[in-house]
């Protein structure tokens, strides 16, 4: 049932993808902001209470409905699983940006590519050249694919089932919604949400990096992971980007780049501290890197689906 749920949800999303600003996501965001308004009194403990309350409101009903569906009919449980996976997956949410940037660069339209990248990432892209446009697009594609696809897969396979997928996506949203806005930046309220998502994403991030290594250049991916992942402030982002870049033979990350909303440690700070500043292996990103990223993501997706199919067969035979 798990394999069928994911497969059918993926097929539906390919035909009719959800927009990133769909009503369900808007409702979750509105709930997050309302919780912040109700609970935020400037202390970290208030953020912890708000996080727990939000999870109870969203995860527990999802779990109860699933158990009710299981008792009613396996087909009802399958339908509920498909719905939740479809709502939590985001394989096509941002792919139109990536595809449009790729087409713009292939046609020599650098201005159009910069505009699209600015809409996607929210960063200033005025002075970016083709190499930096390609690199940032690749980095954001790898991170969004992990958080919108592979992380969801992992938690959907856990005993919580569809409630696990909700737990992962909502925790990822709360970590951003309660830390990134200007009025919440550096406040104690959002610290627990960030730490909670770090813990929830700890294992999925490493499994995604392993998948990139298996379907790409394994040796370079593992070498980059071991030696360069720590250069990102966010550990999970560093692992995914270093392994993904190594798997494709690309050099990802710079001191001025904001990849997936996480800033890399400044190279000058590293040099001033006397730390190792060896460049990661690989070539600078270019327009061909975008096509390589598409191939890496699809091969990783097929690997996940193959492993899930084998697991489902083993459970069925057992």
UniProtKB/TrEMBL annotation:
<dbReference type="GO" id="GO:0005886">
    <property type="term" value="C:plasma membrane"/>
</dbReference>
<comment type="pathway">
    <text>Cofactor biosynthesis; adenosylcobalamin biosynthesis.</text>
</comment>
<keyword id="KW-0472">Membrane</keyword>
<keyword id="KW-1003">Cell membrane</keyword>
<comment type="function">
    <text>Converts cobyric acid to cobinamide by the addition of aminopropanol on the F carboxylic group.</text>
</comment>
<feature type="transmembrane region" description="Helical">
    <location>
        <begin position="75"/>
        <end position="94"/>
    </location>
</feature>
<feature type="transmembrane region" description="Helical">
    <location>
        <begin position="149"/>
        <end position="168"/>
    </location>
</feature>
<keyword id="KW-0169">Cobalamin biosynthesis</keyword>
<feature type="transmembrane region" description="Helical">
    <location>
        <begin position="49"/>
        <end position="68"/>
    </location>
</feature>
<dbReference type="GO" id="GO:0015420">
    <property type="term" value="F:ABC-type vitamin B12 transporter activity"/>
</dbReference>
<dbReference type="InterPro" id="IPR004485">
    <property type="entry name" value="Cobalamin_biosynth_CobD/CbiB"/>
</dbReference>
<dbReference type="GO" id="GO:0048472">
    <property type="term" value="F:threonine-phosphate decarboxylase activity"/>
</dbReference>
<dbReference type="GO" id="GO:0009236">
    <property type="term" value="P:cobalamin biosynthetic process"/>
</dbReference>
<keyword id="KW-0812">Transmembrane</keyword>
<protein>
    <recommendedName>
        <fullName>Cobalamin biosynthesis protein CobD</fullName>
    </recommendedName>
</protein>
<feature type="transmembrane region" description="Helical">
    <location>
        <begin position="296"/>
        <end position="317"/>
    </location>
</feature>
<comment type="similarity">
    <text>Belongs to the CobD/CbiB family.</text>
</comment>
<dbReference type="Pfam" id="PF03186">
    <property type="entry name" value="CobD_Cbib"/>
</dbReference>
<keyword id="KW-1133">Transmembrane helix</keyword>
């Amino acid at each position: 049932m798990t394999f069928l749920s994911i497969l059918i949800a993926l097929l539906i999303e390919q035909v009719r993808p959800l927009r990133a600003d769909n009503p369900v996501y808007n409702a979750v965001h509105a709930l997050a902001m309302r919780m912040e308004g109700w609970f935020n009194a400037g202390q970290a403990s208030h953020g912890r209470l708000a996080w727990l309350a939000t999870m109870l409101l969203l995860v527990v009903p999802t779990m109860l409905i699933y158990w009710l569906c299981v008792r009613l009919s396996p087909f009802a449980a399958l339908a509920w699983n498909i719905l939740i996976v479809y709502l939590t997956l985001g394989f096509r949410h941002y792919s139109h940006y990536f595809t449009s940037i790729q087409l713009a660069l292939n046609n020599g339209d650098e201005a159009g590519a910069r505009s699209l990248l600015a809409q996607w990432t929210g960063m200033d892209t005025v002075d970016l050249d083709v190499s930096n446009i390609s690199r940032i697009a690749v980095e954001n594609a790898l991170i969004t694919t992990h958080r919108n696809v592979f992380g969801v897969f992992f938690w959907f396979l856990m005993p919580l089932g569809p409630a696990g997928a909700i737990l992962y996506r909502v925790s990822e949203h709360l970590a951003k919604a309660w830390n990134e806005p200007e009025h919440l930046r550096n406040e104690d309220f959002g610290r627990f949400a960030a730490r909670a998502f770090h813990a929830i994403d700890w294992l999925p991030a490493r499994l995604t990096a392993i998948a990139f290594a298996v379907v790409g250049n394994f040796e370079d991916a593992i070498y980059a992971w071991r030696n360069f992942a720590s250069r990102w402030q966010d550990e999970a982002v560093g692992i995914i980007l270093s392994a993904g870049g190594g798997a494709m033979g690309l050099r990802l990350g710079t001191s001025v780049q904001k990849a997936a909303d996480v800033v890399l440690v400044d190279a000058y700070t590293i040099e001033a501290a006397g730390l190792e500043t060896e460049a990661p292996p690989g070539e600078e990103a270019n327009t061909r890197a975008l096509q390589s990223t598409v191939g890496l993501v699809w091969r990783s997706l097929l690997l996940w689906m193959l492993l899930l199919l084998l697991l489902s067969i083993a459970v069925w035979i057992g």
